[in-house]
Amino acid sequence: MAATQDIVIVGAGLAGANAAASLRIEEFTGRIILIGDEPYLPYERPPLSKGYLLGNDELETAFVHPADWYAEHAVELRTDVEVVALDRPAHEVVLAGGERVPYGKVLLATGSEPLRLDVPGADLAGVLTLRRIEDSQRLKDAYTRASSVVIVGGGWIGLETAAAARAAGLDVTLLERGELPLLRVLGPEVAPVFADLHREHGVDLRTGAVVAEILGVDGVVTGVRLGDGSTIDTELVVVGVGIRPRTELATASGLDVDNGIVTDEHLRTFDPDVFAAGDVANAMHPLLGRRLRVEHWANAIRQGELAGRTMLGRDDVDDRPPYFFSDQYDLGMEYTGYVEPGDADRVVFRGDVAAREFVAFWLSGDRVLAGMNVNVWDVADMIDVLIRSGRSVDVARLTDLAVGLDEV
Predict the structure, then answer these.
(1) Cα–Cα distance between 406 and 408 in angstroms, integer?
(2) What is the spatial distance between Cα 205 and Cα 98, in angstroms, rounded to a whole number?
(3) pTM surpassing 0.70?
(4) In angstroms, rounded to a whole number, what is the distance separating the alpha carbons of residues 203 and 167?
(5) pLDDT of residue 1
(6) CATH of 7-113+243-311 given 3.50.50.60, 3.40.630.30, 1.10.1040.10, 3.10.25.10
């Protein structure tokens, strides 16, 4: 075992960068090595499908910290470096090329990667995913050259990509395997809001659509063939069918892996010197009493900060419900809470759904499990309080615009 108090963070994304910041905020004076396999400063991913992709924001706005922050805070940032193994008995991470970096504690913040379509033609030029900076750059460039795009997958990334494509003037066909986009996340009461939104903005939204093959000529995409035999001509295909946690290092080193690296509510694995945070962590949530692997921006920030404190021996937890946001056309939304299919027995609305200015609440009995505010602002914190209280609410007052949410 290496005799060192050095902390190594594997994964220089939002969770990893926030863990490094947390360590310094907590006055850790030892060595911090932050290792990432991309050639960029640690960055946030939301701009890649929002402001940066739309051309409204410069790339620098996505960076977690400016370049000089790392030297100023004595964080050794090593970019474009791949970690190929975690040697837990030796307390070392192994880099491509064979270099070994000793650690006292190590944080795995390796993130996730896009799922690919398992169909013929999925590797043709012009078939893109959106996860990294270069993906967003390729897509932004493709939007300037193409006249049409087929987007496969009606999740958040697919919908945001569709909105950006329409803003760029492309003809957009959006293929969703289910009955509605976001049906599993939002349920039949709220998912139609987003289906209607995209159709009103000219998107050809096709539900119950299964991709059988991506067609091409000379290695370049020319169209998509669906399971019903119909074809769609296109110069560009964007695949947004989900992501998978990058757990290879954890699996190979013998850590518990089950839909991510298994941790307790403090982000510890069973190895007292190994921790996990961000997309890759399947962590016990102290409020919900179940393990969650959350793939959103706020979770990466919160878990990065928590992991920093935990690695210093603290027993803190973060019991805030999950939070995420999305911007599509003239619709902005925030979602606070967590609801699996079957958790809620009803959904109630506060405001004007038709005008897309409302708050939707998912309830179990009279207890709020989650809330989504659409084009209504400064209420997410109050929704958080309603969820965390666990108390029954007066639903009539909850849905009455004349009663402030703070009064509820």
Answers:
(1) 5
(2) 49
(3) yes
(4) 11
(5) 38
(6) 3.50.50.60
